[in-house]
Amino acid sequence: MKLMMSTTELEQPFLCQNVRTELLHALLDAVKSGLSMCNASTQWVGLATVPTHNIGIVTGIIGVHGNASGFVTVNMAERFAIKAVEGMLQEPQEKLNPTVIDGVGEITNLLAGGVKAALAGTPWGFTHITAPSVIVGTGSEIAFAKGLTYLCATFEHQDPEAVLMADRLLQISVSLLPA
């Protein structure tokens, strides 16, 4: 069985019945194009249709509104955040600092913009996004209202220097309520 599939090879039987493929394609495409601006490459490694615990300690959140309303969240490991911001700014970052936190907000904005573009013209489309907020810390959880359609894709950063899997992970999720 083939474990990794490109977005063009995705077929409905491969996915859970309740996965909205237009949402999945939006997440996959947004990460691919958005992280290219950060000189970061990732591989899609997981999918969840129910809220999961945040795997990283840095989470960017953007509210969205239009045909659907809700949130785009981007959760990442500290090392991933530092490396992605280094790639985006082309400047070394030694540790999690205000520059990296601001950069995570910008990455969240890039990814949410990619999702917005991919969902334009669909029932899941939205026209307005808020400024990003960034939460830093371990053990944070986001509570989602009942009735939202939720989808979360997990990606592994292709970082040869990261020893632990937890240091290479990024999750992007949408939680949307159609109007």
Question: How does this structure look, described?
Answer:
The protein has 179 residues and is of the alpha+beta class. The protein has one domain (21-178): Chemotaxis protein chec (3-Layer(aba) Sandwich), CATH 3.40.1550.10. It has helices at residues 21-36, 78-89, 98-119, and strands spanning 42-48, 58-66, 68-76, 126-129, 133-136, 149-157, 169-178. A hairpin with a 1-residue loop joins strand 2 (58-66) and strand 3. Helix 1 (21-36) crosses helix 3 (98-119) and helix 2 packs across helix 3 (98-119). The radius of gyration is 15 Å and the shape is globular.
Compose a concise summary of this entry.
Helix content is 28%, strand content 29%. The protein is α+β, with helices and mostly antiparallel strands and 179 residues long.
Features:
179 residues; alpha+beta; Chemotaxis protein chec; seven-stranded antiparallel beta sheet; 3 helices; disordered N terminus
Summarize the topology.
Blueprint: H1 21-36, E1 42-48, E2 58-66, E3 68-76, H2 78-89, H3 98-119, E4 126-129, E5 133-136, E6 149-157, E7 169-178
Antiparallel strand pairs: 1-6, 2-3, 2-4, 2-5, 3-7, 6-7
Helix pairs in contact: 1-3, 2-3
Count of beta strands = 7
Strand content: 25-35%
> Could you describe the largest sheet, including whether it forms a barrel?
7 strands, antiparallel
- In one word, what is the shape? globular
Return the string of H and E elements: HEEEHHEEEE
Taking all Cα atoms into account, the compactness measure Rg is 15 Å
Query: Regions with pLDDT < 50 over 5+ consecutive residues?
Result: 1-14
